[in-house]
Design a protein that fits this description.
The chain has 6 helices and 16 strands. With 281 residues, it is α+β, with helices and mostly antiparallel strands. It has a 5-stranded antiparallel beta sheet, with no helix packed on it. Strands 13-12-11-9-14 form a 5-stranded antiparallel beta sheet, with helices on one face. Strand 4 and strand 5 form a beta hairpin. Helix 3 packs across helix 4 and helix 4 packs antiparallel against helix 6. The N and C termini lie close together (8 Å).
């Protein structure tokens, strides 16, 4: 188990005065069966009231608006979280039983349909079907499919953008964690395995020293259902461990962006994002 302190700062500088802005932030982790939130808070400048709620998929949301003129906006999310590893445990479920169980609950039914983000390239569908055909256990098939995607796609920043799709990234065979998660989700859904997008943070150093702050970033991975939910990080081809801090879940990135909002004012703005992660125990 590790104790991680996370500071996620997002800043906007506008080319002129903004008369009003309306925002939703998904930056604060919640307590689950594998992580415990010791403290969490959102700091906003200009100061304003914040309303908090849990969305349809179980993600903590901080909603706020600023109705006085401002030329900049800064949001700082600070959290202290204890995290333990979440090793994959295969249940031995059959394909027929998975199909039956997946059709009985909204939680799984909604994670079977493809979105514009996750619709897979034909080559990805072929890979997924080939791997699935070699396994009687869909959980083991899901594990191998995600590893195959991780092996096939190179992590390269700047080739894709925040609006890129799984098919776009597959054609390039390059992308970031968001792209690899979308490709893996599309592949899993293509063979009837419910899969969802997970957003959060990852401490970048496996052997992190206590008390040393390091530059981090938002991260994304996947979870699939094969009798129970299991997680995997295709970007690093690893199981979810005590360096992964979960913030939100959804059908794809559109359900869990760190910040979403609209404002009235100049068309252009400059964005600055900084994530710092410190291991404290």
């Amino acid at each position: 188990m590790k104790r991680l302190r996370i500071e996620h700062q997002t800043g906007f500088a506008y080319e002129g005065a903004v008369s009003a802005s309306y925002n939703e932030a998904r930056m604060l982790p919640g307590t689950t069966d594998s992580q415990f939130v010791l403290s969490s808070a959102l700091e906003i400048d200009p100061a304003t009231a914040v309303s908090s709620y849990v969305d349809y998929f179980g993600t903590r949301v901080s909603s706020f608006d600023i109705l006085s003129p401002h030329q900049g906006l800064t949001i700082v999310a600070r959290s202290l979280v204890e995290v333990r590893p979440r090793p994959i445990e295969h249940t031995g479920i059959t394909w027929d039983r998975l199909a039956a169980e997946s059709s009985r609950a909204i939680e799984t039914v909604e994670q079977l349909s493809q979105s514009d983000r996750t619709t897979p390239h034909a080559e990805v569908v072929e890979i997924a079907r080939s791997i699935a055909g070699r396994h009687d256990d869909p959980g083991r098939a899901a594990h191998d499919i995600c590893m195959a995607i991780g092996d096939a796609v190179e992590y390269v920043y700047g080739v894709t953008g925040v609006h890129s799709t799984a098919a776009d990234a597959w054609k390039a065979r390059k992308g970031v964690c968001q792209d690899m998660a979308h490709i893996a989700i599309g592949a899993l859904r293509a063979v009837g395995i419910p899969a969802r997008y997970v957003s959060g943070y990852l401490h970048p150093r496996a052997g992190a020293e206590i008390g040393v702050a390091v530059a981090g970033e938002s991260h994304a991975w996947v979870e699939w259902f094969a009798g129970e939910w299991a997680g995997f990080d295709p970007t690093n081809n690893t199981e979810i461990g005590d360096r992964h801090v979960l913030v939100g879940r959804g059908r794809d990135y559109n359900d869990v962006p760190p910040l979403r909002g609209v404002y009235a004012g100049p068309d252009k703005s400059k964005l600055n994002v900084r994530v710092t992660i410190t291991r404290e125990a």
